Amino acid sequence: MTYPLKDALRGVFLAALLTMLFHVAISDVDECAEGSDNCAQVCTNTEGSFTCSCWEGYTLHDNGWFCHGPKVDLYVEMQYPRVDVTRTDHTETLCRPSLGDLTLINGYHVGIKLDTGYGTSIDYLTDGVHYSSIGHTDSRYGLRLFDDAGNFRVNAFSSYFHPNSFSVTVNINENATLSMFEYNPPPGGHDGTTEWRKDGSVLPGTYTDCDLAIVNVQMSDEGLYECYYTGRYSDRKQGIMRLIVRECPEGKWGPPACTSTCEECNNGGVCDDETGQCICAPGFGGLHCDLGCSVGYFGDSCISRCARGTCQYKIVCGPDPLGCRCIAGYKGSNCNAQCSYGTYGSDCLQTCHCASGIYVCSRYTGVCSSGGCEAGWEGTMCHIDVDECSLGTDDCAQVCENVPGSFTCSCWAGYVMDSGTYVDECSLDIDNCEHTCHNHIGNYTCSCDVGYSLASNGWNCTGALPDFTNKLK
């Protein structure tokens, strides 16, 4: 016996199942959305694959995923900037860690120069004992420094003190503070006094901590600084950090006159005092550092990628005067802590401005996943302050001053604020006084001429009519 309806339904079910299986089989994977692409700047999903492209003003490299820009893009990644010698015995300094040749940067050859701050050369070290080279077979170029390299290791094995930041950048004539914290107490204890060295020379004075204040910084103050317990320098457990000095005041470039105005550098970027161009914090690129690199990439053109697939426990050093920092999304003396909600970028120093709150803000780029920017901010990362004063969208009666994310009002000379809005009703002739107006903070009062009295409404004046009878006699 046959059941036409049942057979028909079975056929429909099988057809639907086959259609679903066929759809699953050919369903496209969006590599851009899941981050499995290798595009340095812009990823566009295509059916079964993806394509890479570049920001405006940049050109795609022959490898199909890196981009060249108008600036020489040279950053250095430090692997294991601080290590426990019981777990590993070396630190690595990598130059362009993800590229396979050394002539990709606008025709420039790339190499690493090791500056220990002591004026000595790496020739004093023995290859294979103190260091080894990282070459083309690793698709990376750099140096691997071992424990026996001693003070040639840039902060690699310092265990008594760690710097709060690997480098500090200030403008000339500003004040600088170099700070380190105790990471491990020395065996046998200590009286707590410390010493500082600059470029190998002991600085005068005795300290009870590792905080060094430098007033009115000059170019001669630039260099490598070390802090350690008094008398324990030979332990090789000192903290090391670098002070970088821009030769111009903030916002200016072109020493010694420094009369040129810098480009606007966003997201922690620093103006190069020699060229006026922006040097972007790791994780951002573009002429104004207002473009976010794909996660794990860094450099002004986002041309370098963290080695071994992770950016934790690494610092990235850019050209001076940027210095060394954690890559976008991380912070801490070991660059292993993720940014807290509401912060983003390199060392997590940037503040989110998302209208929908801190939880929709990318800890890498500051981009809001929904809701757009909160009032007073704009841009792809909500990092650009809206100048309400210039746009005329403020409600100030007299003087408007723009501040980040908002504005404030003030008055002309001789005027005072009235409940948040500066108004002198008498001078503006918006009072109701029939005779004389007297301005006060928040209001005004009226008075009348001689022979008149103020009416009950507070602004009209009343008085007796003149007696013309006697004048007619």
From TrEMBL:
Signal peptide feature range: 1-27
UniProt entry tagged with the keyword Repeat: yes
Single Gene Ontology MF annotation: calcium ion binding
Domain of life: Eukaryota
S-S bonds: 280-289
UniProt-listed Pfam families: EGF_CA
A GO cellular component entry from the record: endoplasmic reticulum
Main localization of the protein described in the UniProt heading: endoplasmic reticulum
Keyword Transport recorded: no
Residue span(s) of domain EGF-like: 28-68, 259-290, 422-462
Record key words, sorted: Calcium, Disulfide bond, EGF-like domain, Endoplasmic reticulum, Glycoprotein, Repeat, Signal
A GO BP annotation: cell differentiation
Compartments where found: Endoplasmic reticulum
Protein name: Multiple epidermal growth factor-like domains protein 6
Organism: Branchiostoma belcheri (Amphioxus)
Gene: LOC109486042
